[in-house]
Amino acid sequence: MKPRFITMVMATVLSSASVWASDMSTNTSMGDVYVDNSGMTLYTFAKDSDGKSVCEGDCAVKWPPFIAEGKSSEYFASTPGFSKIKRSDGSEQWAKNGMPLYTWFKDKKQGDITGAGVKGVWPLARADDVTVKLYNNGQQRFLVDSQNRTLYTFDKDQQNQSNCYGDCAVKWPPAYVNADLTKDGISNIKVSGGFSIVKRNDDTYQWAYQGQPLYRWFKDKTPGDTTGDGVKNVWHIVSKQP
């Protein structure tokens, strides 16, 4: 089944919160992300652990560590959630929520996100609260949840409204917004890049992209599976061309 491509826009859907930005972040086709001193996109590495980088050698050539120096030192030192970790060579690297930060050698200009989702282990260092990510399987990039489970849209939904309930929602579980984010109200959740939050009939909240609610598929078993794409010609992955 040929994937349906939805153009990712830079405008923010302001249904739940306003965009947050700073000198150390920029807007991309996936929303607001943190950047280094040169304005290049920052990423984290899923194989790292809290406070420790395992990206050395050739990995660090392709994914240069974001060393704590320059104007970033003043900004990130006073920004909650950021800290410094010590690398094996003694240098200090910035980390977000304990996860070391890197750039990607194939990004050539500000706003590039060509490293997003590479091998499913290099997510963007987002500057908002959106937990939806990109997954790159080597052939295409598409939206996934925080666990790399593929996300889909449903043609029978309406703009900012889900019509998938009952047995439908069993087979196609909604991409719920984590309760840790909603506990203080959705007005405090920062979104950007066309992402928004829709309220379901049961008063739960679901992620949406360009007004289209997002779902998983119960037959997808491993990260990056796309077995739900094209089901009954009404379920589609959300692909983003590199």
UniProtKB/TrEMBL annotation:
UniProt keywords, alphabetically: Signal
Record Pfam families: Lipoprotein_15 (PF03640)
Presence of keyword Signal: yes
Domain of life where this protein originates: Bacteria
GO BP annotations, alphabetical order: alkane catabolic process
Alphabetical list of InterPro entries matching this protein: Lipoprotein_repeat
Signal peptide: 1-21
Record protein name field: Lipoprotein
